[in-house]
Automatic annotation (TrEMBL):
Belongs to the TRAPP small subunits family. TRAPPC4 subfamily. PANTHER family: TRAFFICKING PROTEIN PARTICLE COMPLEX SUBUNIT, TRAFFICKING PROTEIN PARTICLE COMPLEX SUBUNIT 4. Part of the multisubunit transport protein particle (TRAPP) complex. Keywords: Endoplasmic reticulum, ER-Golgi transport, Golgi apparatus, Transport. This is Trafficking protein particle complex subunit. GO terms for biological process: endoplasmic reticulum to Golgi vesicle-mediated transport.
């Protein structure tokens, strides 16, 4: 086979999972999750993987408040006419070379910010699964007060088992 040009194989990259195929393969790179209440207050934050600079609790508070303000402003900066009956949305995705920030806002105004690898597939599925866990383990907890910091062990456990890779 001398002289024959064979294509170079791309380096193997881990396959990522979304909500639909969690049982198949368990590797995804989610750096952090932040939950912001409708007033812009930080009610939950958790880091899952190395890759982002370490932030202090105060940095997370500033980040939550800043994102809430930018999100509110971008709701009004829509250059296209809105579809009747559909509420305006603010910033949904922020991408950089080292991370991607995806925002999911609930109908009640709670925002879920997910920091992932820039090329992480199926982020919508991942963030919706996180919201499903939030609904099941936080909102159905009779001791949780709405808009207050989330301190729910069941939510932490299920979130960690969903997001953290299984070896």
């Amino acid at each position: 086979m001398a002289g024959r040009n064979l294509p170079l194989e791309a380096p193997l990259r881990p396959r990522y999972v979304g909500a639909a195929d969690v049982a198949e393969w368990k590797v995804m790179v989610v750096f952090a999750l932040i939950v912001i209440n409708k007033a812009g207050g930080l009610i939950y934050h958790r880091e899952f993987h190395e890759g982002l600079n370490k932030l202090s609790v105060n940095d997370y508070l500033v980040l939550a408040g800043t994102f809430h303000g930018v999100h509110a402003i971008t709701k009004n900066l829509c250059p296209l006419p809105r579809t009747p009956g559909q509420p305006p949305t603010g910033i949904e995705v922020l991408e950089s070379e080292s991370f991607r920030l995806q925002c999911f806002q609930t109908l009640t105004g709670t925002k879920f910010l997910l920091f992932t690898e820039p090329h992480q597939p199926n982020i919508d599925g991942i963030i919706r699964k996180v919201y499903e866990l939030y609904s099941d383990y936080v909102m159905k907890n009779p001791f949780y007060q709405i808009e207050m910091p989330i301190r729910c062990d069941a939510f932490d456990r299920h979130l960690a088992s969903y997001i953290k890779p299984r070896q």
